[in-house]
Amino acid sequence: MKKVVTFGEIMLRLAPEGYLRFSQAEKYGATYGGGEANVAVSLANYGLDAAFVTKLPKHEIGQAGVNALRKYGVDTSKIVRGGDRVGIYFLEKGASQRPSKVVYDRANSAISQAKRVDFDWNNILDDVEFFHFTGITPALGGEVPAICEDALKVCKEKGIMVSCDLNYRKNLWTKAEAKETMSKLMPYVDVCIANEEDAADVFDIHATNTDISSGKLNYDGYKEVAKTLAETFGFKKVAITLRGSISANDNNWAAMLYDGSEFYFSKNYLVHIVDRVGGGDSFGGGLIYAILNNFSMQETIEFAVAASCLKHSIEGDFNMVSVDEVLKLAKGDGSGRVQR
Amino acid sequence: MKKVVTFGEIMLRLAPEGYLRFSQAEKYGATYGGGEANVAVSLANYGLDAAFVTKLPKHEIGQAGVNALRKYGVDTSKIVRGGDRVGIYFLEKGASQRPSKVVYDRANSAISQAKRVDFDWNNILDDVEFFHFTGITPALGGEVPAICEDALKVCKEKGIMVSCDLNYRKNLWTKAEAKETMSKLMPYVDVCIANEEDAADVFDIHATNTDISSGKLNYDGYKEVAKTLAETFGFKKVAITLRGSISANDNNWAAMLYDGSEFYFSKNYLVHIVDRVGGGDSFGGGLIYAILNNFSMQETIEFAVAASCLKHSIEGDFNMVSVDEVLKLAKGDGSGRVQR
Amino acid sequence: MKKVVTFGEIMLRLAPEGYLRFSQAEKYGATYGGGEANVAVSLANYGLDAAFVTKLPKHEIGQAGVNALRKYGVDTSKIVRGGDRVGIYFLEKGASQRPSKVVYDRANSAISQAKRVDFDWNNILDDVEFFHFTGITPALGGEVPAICEDALKVCKEKGIMVSCDLNYRKNLWTKAEAKETMSKLMPYVDVCIANEEDAADVFDIHATNTDISSGKLNYDGYKEVAKTLAETFGFKKVAITLRGSISANDNNWAAMLYDGSEFYFSKNYLVHIVDRVGGGDSFGGGLIYAILNNFSMQETIEFAVAASCLKHSIEGDFNMVSVDEVLKLAKGDGSGRVQR
Amino acid sequence: MKKVVTFGEIMLRLAPEGYLRFSQAEKYGATYGGGEANVAVSLANYGLDAAFVTKLPKHEIGQAGVNALRKYGVDTSKIVRGGDRVGIYFLEKGASQRPSKVVYDRANSAISQAKRVDFDWNNILDDVEFFHFTGITPALGGEVPAICEDALKVCKEKGIMVSCDLNYRKNLWTKAEAKETMSKLMPYVDVCIANEEDAADVFDIHATNTDISSGKLNYDGYKEVAKTLAETFGFKKVAITLRGSISANDNNWAAMLYDGSEFYFSKNYLVHIVDRVGGGDSFGGGLIYAILNNFSMQETIEFAVAASCLKHSIEGDFNMVSVDEVLKLAKGDGSGRVQR
Amino acid sequence: MKKVVTFGEIMLRLAPEGYLRFSQAEKYGATYGGGEANVAVSLANYGLDAAFVTKLPKHEIGQAGVNALRKYGVDTSKIVRGGDRVGIYFLEKGASQRPSKVVYDRANSAISQAKRVDFDWNNILDDVEFFHFTGITPALGGEVPAICEDALKVCKEKGIMVSCDLNYRKNLWTKAEAKETMSKLMPYVDVCIANEEDAADVFDIHATNTDISSGKLNYDGYKEVAKTLAETFGFKKVAITLRGSISANDNNWAAMLYDGSEFYFSKNYLVHIVDRVGGGDSFGGGLIYAILNNFSMQETIEFAVAASCLKHSIEGDFNMVSVDEVLKLAKGDGSGRVQR
Amino acid sequence: MKKVVTFGEIMLRLAPEGYLRFSQAEKYGATYGGGEANVAVSLANYGLDAAFVTKLPKHEIGQAGVNALRKYGVDTSKIVRGGDRVGIYFLEKGASQRPSKVVYDRANSAISQAKRVDFDWNNILDDVEFFHFTGITPALGGEVPAICEDALKVCKEKGIMVSCDLNYRKNLWTKAEAKETMSKLMPYVDVCIANEEDAADVFDIHATNTDISSGKLNYDGYKEVAKTLAETFGFKKVAITLRGSISANDNNWAAMLYDGSEFYFSKNYLVHIVDRVGGGDSFGGGLIYAILNNFSMQETIEFAVAASCLKHSIEGDFNMVSVDEVLKLAKGDGSGRVQR
User: Fold this and answer.
1) Which residues of chain D have a CB within 8 Å of the CB of B71?
2) Could you tell me which of A294, A300, A329, A311 has the C-alpha nearest to residue A41?
3) Is the predicted ipTM greater than 0.90, yes or no?
4) F314 touches chain B (CB under 8 A)
5) Superfamily for the F3-330 domain
6) What are the domain boundaries of chain C?
7) Can you tell me which family this protein belongs to (chains A, B, C, D, E, F) (predicted)?
């Protein structure tokens, strides 16, 4: 079984039921999620040997995070235990014209306080084929950017393929900080993943003629973005997700893959949203699976987009789908007829 | 009050809440349903004297099935009590491009193990005007096909009108088995009900130019299907539901009725789905009600389709609507304005 | 802080969960709401000093109504305590072609039995800038119409601006009774609010060429309605909401404002409904806020419609939105993108 | 199957979940219950043909009351449909030293407004062996006491045995009113049921040396009460329940039966309470069953007390137990060991 | 109405449902609580004008804390808004021999980061009669001990009576730190409240012959504790709660009050626990109410203990009881009989 | 880490919420459990490397069983996937005098249909120190007794210590069948575990002077039972749990351990029950842990009883406690005081 490692933060996600606003909530659904953890779960659900690396407190709230990953078969044996708190994010689900809202309470989480000595990357990355992280991880600050670099250097030594989802978070750092730190890490990256805003936010590379809040994207503008990214940092592949947000309930969803020479566009899905958080991560999970299984470029982008299309129909951060389910959709059956 | 009897299996339906996948469910909504039981509830809700006949264990899980029917006024006094288990089906509700999924656990249910001596049809069908069953019932195997035939013979003797919903279930039998058994029972049937796939699955009668997973149906192709069915088995009426599945959330819904000479198409509804399981059964219930009340052919098909259109907005297998509600929609008010 | 007073009934709202029908409900969500109370909550959420006036029993069910208002910052110190019961309404949420259904159980509520001596309007309206009521309040009968008139006279004396939402309720009175009573109260009103049916129901003033159950409204027909209303009763402003009901899930939503000379139409929103009860009240709340803050006519109608557009995405009678959220939508961002 | 009829009010019971106080409740469990309806459900659960007679509105809230009874096999075909509202009671469950609390909202319910012409007792009581009502029914006022008398006269004519549970409700009438009305009805009664307070409240007949709020009862004092009751009204049997309330969680529970010559005391149970509402009604149900089945006096009181002991372990007004379960406890196994 | 101010932290309380362990929880009940906030709610429920002072972030999670207090009538107008996070505590409810468990996540909460300049005590304490805080507040560190002292000095100037509940929290500071800081604040305190461990933890004053984990307390040993406390710090009154913990479900609960000359012991309650968090705070609330209303010493301690006895039967931190309910129990009716 | 393997069936457990009876349940809590699976979870929670071996279908309901075990760290890599169904048991929780009730629906589960070739015991038991099974496993019939024997022979070869919990299930086999089959397997067993009834049911070895339904056990009678068991089958240790069932809520709980020469009795716990299913399994888990860690005989029985005492306070089949928690109780702190 192919081994993949992802590294980052997993948070406790607290969300009011249904479409209740925070001010109406008497209880919170309590699940766990985070960019790289979500990718690990996707991959474990596809049958890969996926390990997630982070630091989590020893107490029950930290342990529940470990359990959430174990339940879906993620290898948690490399998680460092210690520190005081689990990062939290509060999520209010939007509907119609009302957007979803996230309130972060993640400062001083165990992983954000972690030290370089906590992680023995030579051991962690033993026998590993693929390593994935996102721009959120170095944004945690402290020693975390250095920990990322430590990991990436070992990846280089061991010939491990690396993907990074740029994933800019304005609450964690400024665009300038992001650009400086990410620019140092990008040379280690083989596969760059971004959404329709990230390249602009992190590297000041803009798609032309696009207004994301209008719900309409100019797909051609993203060709240039991908090309510039690849040329600047030497990425072997650049994948960009293209979300057209019609409302909090309805989105268009598609993506583009660039391999340094050709541009491959997926088909577009009109998705009726159950939960869109983790949509980008499920795209990353699908992309990594397809790459590790040597799908063609077109098959790769179709698999990744179909996987993330399905994620939008699933509650929680994690994408709970099988390879068969993704392939069925990628091959064209999106009719939603009952499977008996 | 007109008496109707339906005969078949009622199962315990276990469904995760909302759009949760099986792997995320910590609890299951526990309701009861099954093709013929659903029709009986429809008819009881329309004010008819509807009895459901089956075999159910004496224990509490069997009793809860009886209670579920009694609650809505179905006559359960003819249910045979005995056997070991209640059939179960697990239902995961789909959304957007993700289809609903059913896992059956119905083998060895009390009804599937029932014996011909369990049912005294002369008594059960006393004073009855209409008898309904579906293709699922003989598919249960054992003595059940013979029990069906026993019932049908008594219907013939007593001049009871008979309807059958073909309802092919690939988990219960092969197409060849279905064809053989059903062909023997069809001569007793007056009204044949089928969905857009059943005639092909059971009797190898195909509509031309239709791809059901594309969401687009060729309505004209079904005229030929209905005609062939009527000619082959001598049905007085053939009704075919026409589901155009756009996604797990949105379906087109219409139907056609053939009376041996003319084809009557209902108006089409674009339904936003709450729960589509039991959609076909609610059509059958509406059809039987309309026939028993001597509606015109066009009124009949409009009533049946409006009834089943409303079912798609209701949780559970049972169609919880009144005659007034169906008529209001059939007559054209589908605006959904609040009724105060 | 600007002080506003609203006067009317607040009811216990009992609603089955999700899309369950009454006959399926084993529990009811228990919240509180009512036309004028809903407006008070809207205004408190916008930061105004909003007081709600009514009469509620001293017992726990009455107290829970007080608490529901206090929670959101409404001043409840002017509520008269006494009487026997809290009015109740049962609400079943519709879906697709199935309409929402309301069963009222409000007869003999404490406020409907209230006496003129219960309310010392000189004290209640001290320092108040704006007074709001709806046509539901006088429809409660008994001394309530007289209590309304008492309040309105004091408003006149104190120069308090008055708005009235016509809000015809056929269960409470006939059209003839409504016309007679409302005609007496209208001369005190500065701002008249109505939906697409109210003017016809209460004052027999009809929009031409409109069939509300078809989902299509003839906007021009409402210009004449507004003009006639203004001329008949001397309203300074007339605002009419224009709901185009496609289904129980999807509505078009817009409004028109007439200031005696010009007609201002808002943009139209296609809303995917979470809960549409209180939609009109949230429009009233937005309108009052905009008027009190001297928005331009066009800004006023856009604010009121954006506010009520958002209400449709929120569970319960109350509109839980901030001024910032309304302005963001009114200015054009309805893409529903996640706010992190 | 022996036919029994009970007559009275069935109310919608709205109860916060668990031990939440009214002020904390965001939802209410919605079940149905009422003294005589509870007895009917007990008897249906024991396999008797039990009909409940009342008047309920035609709307969905009334229908849900009918459904609640049908679910458990009660014959609802004699219920008169009409009137405006279903009586409601709000129930907050107590714990430890905090008592349970009931807020009634039952005025003007359909049954309280019923007319003598609504009930054709000759038809209703055809073939009936036993008739039961409680002191709550005549307390509803209006024509209801006369309706009771109408029923009782027909019972006398037909030789139907009659039981009455005195059940004094201070919110419905004064002790003087109760005494006057009940004194007129008692001559028709064969079996009188009372709790440790009723005889004092209704007929001013007091047990000596008992302080019910101390949790200690003087059993001997109740012998005199029973004897006086029997002598005054000519009851053939008098049964008195003896609740020793230690706390809201823990009660002693026993009863005494007097047959005009001997006193039979049941064993005492220390019950750990799940829900004690309906405790007295379940005693009545057990008593009637035992009498109809010609149990000995001692067996009768043991059956009735064991039945009601079990009721305290069951949520809701209804006693959901079988004859076998009651007999098992009455015969001595109260160990609560798991039944596999 | 008498004005009382309490000052401290209010936290978001996240608790699994029922008796689920953290590792089993899929959702958390979300309420708010904290020592001084709990006292403020108690007092507001008794009808006093109670204000709670703290610092809370402006975001929705902070606002929900404000709403929780407003709902029960607490004056929140003096709460300073700002800072980043709301302190959180996770609470797992124990049962039988398994203790309840609290995991704190309160570091860096807005109040713990507050500055002296945030609070204008002259304004806050205007017209106030009573001020209350607990040992938890200075334990928050940073400038909070100084803020406490600022408040206490103003109390002294204005002649406001002051109570302090020692409430030692070992996760917030060491015993040595507590002793040093608290010793400086005690001279401003009139009424000292402590549980059976606090005096030992904070001031090294031990009751003789008591082993709290055995469930048995030596009451006489606490007389000496109270006397020493009063003599050391000049308290006018010392109240000590005496919890005898039999199991997580069953506790003995009593208290002692010392007025400098006499010792007053309350009656003892055997409480069957629903939720014991906030038990001590509800004692403080009862004590303050009784003192402000000039109850006798014996009445005071009985009122405070009865109030807190009832709290153990109520979910959440807040004590939701009325003066009448407390008095009824204090006067001896703990039988838990249903109140209709 | 010490490796332990347990072998048996894991079932889907469907339980109404709280104390609802089956007939009242609208949803079922869905967890997983079974004698040997419960022991595996206990051991994983204690930090051992515990693997559970069974056969489960590949479908989602089977996978959810795997996930339930993985969540708590049980090694599921040896589970054979295949077969059609997951065994189910329905559990209704008892209260007071009403016993808990189990309805089994486990016939034809995947494990009961498993074949000897499905299990490669040499591989499964590689490096294992301890093997555990219960009398339920051979009772499943078919090839399962032979599979057990296959496993036990490999244990013997590898010198793996074996424990067996007799666990008689009357629904699965007769006493005669149990005796015959179990007698063949016992010679491989080192540690025999039984409850107060098992030895009598399986081997006709009776304790004298004990009536289990009376709630009183004669402890001395069990000494003889243990001795006879040890002598008959050559067990090195015999452990017998001693449940004194006072009611469904309250049990006495203790145990005895016999090592062939001495009898060691644990202290007795009066447990207030949250969920007693799995109580015996948690005893087995504690016993195995203590044996593997070379606790003294007295420490061993105290650990096992304290572990299972705590289980009674935890929902579900699994015992969710840590070694520290068990030791704390075993050493005497059962006061249930809050752990902060």
Assistant:
1) 67-68, 70-71
2) A311
3) yes
4) no
5) Ribokinase (3.40.1190.20)
6) 3-330
7) Belongs to the carbohydrate kinase PfkB family.
